[in-house]
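Sample 3 of the quickstart, ligand deoxycytidine diphosphate:
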Amino acid sequence: MGINIALDGPSGAGKSTIAKAVAAKMQYVYVDTGAMYRSVACYMVTNGVDLDNTEEIISKLSEISIKLEYKDGAQHVILNGEDVSDKIRTPEISMAASKTSAIPEVRAFLFDLQQTMAKENNIIMDGRDIGTVVLPNADVKIFLTASAEARAQRRLKELQEKGDPSTFEEVLRDIEQRDYNDTHRETAPLKKADDAVEVDTTSLDLQQSIDEICRVINEKLGVKKNDDDGAVKKERTPRVLMEVQPISKTHHVNPLKVLVYGILRWAVIGIYHLYYDIRWEGTENVPKDGGNIFASNHRSYQDPVFIALHARVPLSYMAKEELFQGNKAFKWLISNLGAFPVTRGKGDTAVIDTSIEKLESGRNLAIFPEGTRSKDGKVGKGKTGVALIAAVAQTKVIPVGITFEGKLKFRSKVIVRYGEPIVPAEIGASNTDSKSLRVLKNKVMEEITSLVHE
Ligand SMILES: Nc1ncnc2c1ncn2[C@@H]1O[C@H](COP(=O)(O)OP(=O)(O)O)[C@@H](O)[C@H]1O
Ligand SMILES: Nc1ccn([C@H]2C[C@H](O)[C@@H](COP(=O)(O)OP(=O)(O)O)O2)c(=O)n1
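Result:
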């Protein structure tokens, strides 16, 4: 179960703008339930359904599929495969949504979808009934308001920017009509939950509103008192959330080094083709830039080289510290090939910092989540370290599957498969809380396993 923040209030109070900003700041998923109601209305309007004919509206619900997708940080609303993100924002659809959202069957239809999203992710969800009906146990509930005039003024500005000729009076009338519809419907009317914090934004500008909401959230997520026994509930502090700092992709490995590395790579690829019966698959999945994690099953000491040969930017990888203690020339060699030491079995936390530093410096990082080589070729369960590094750095993880029969020897048939990159935030792992790490680790191990067995 993720952390859930419920944000309710009337139209134009600032819910979606603020929720988006908070989601970006806290690396949460933003769920715009209004967009879902708008999509239902959009389908009805587009298909000529009479909005006073409740029976017909209900009968059409089974034809609707709604998805919220996240591309380049923006939320897109997909209705039956079509991106309707812009289409649902017209005054006509606003008014239609206000009408169709009063129908209990429409609400029940969207309720399941909303609850599922809340279960799977850390989310901030905005709407009218989130704190009262959809997420009655939300960790934080906020009721956002502003005077009808202030809200109408904001909407008018928005509409004017889009070239819409509506007047202030018309917009105010629409807002008041929708407020009336939303607060007077029988099912899940707009009202403040008893345990919600009310924030009035009438005299606050946007930044002040965002700051106030962040303050309320931090206060609520900090330490929560259990009303029944006065004990402090299991603390879910935002401290952990703050540690997530997506690495900056502005650091690049020296281009000359990349060029020399490229020439060497191709020379080594040639040698490897002579020595092994080797093939690389899925090379189109390898990002052209650095700062990515390659997570692979571990079969042999050659694995870092196998993985590196199709990555354009050099790789760093962890190697057991004993390798750095013996022969100085060997230490020099492996260090220059990107290895850095890790103390095994001691929960070496410095290695996490070093890994992040490597990624930040623009290098790629190879990790073998199983920790040790597999003798029989079976993929083990994997440790959480890979997920922790990926979650803290919020960077792509490219799963890799390495297969060969028995022991690696001259002319062994080797296949190295690169899978599609995993983006932590897209699979609900936008934090370092235990649920995010579990989700991420499981996904990485699943992908590696299926690449090995393809
Ligand atoms: N506190 C505020 N002060 C000024 N403008 C605001 C404020 N909050 C929101 N806005 C602006 O008002 C408009 C409506 O806000 P929006 O987030 O769409 O409201 P809601 O989701 O509650 O309907 C947006 O253009 C937004 O930039
Ligand atoms: N949880 C929700 C969310 C929206 N609705 C209704 C109320 C509104 O009339 C429509 C559209 O909501 P939306 O939040 O997009 O509207 P505004 O952006 O506030 O104008 O859906 C609802 O009934 N319950």
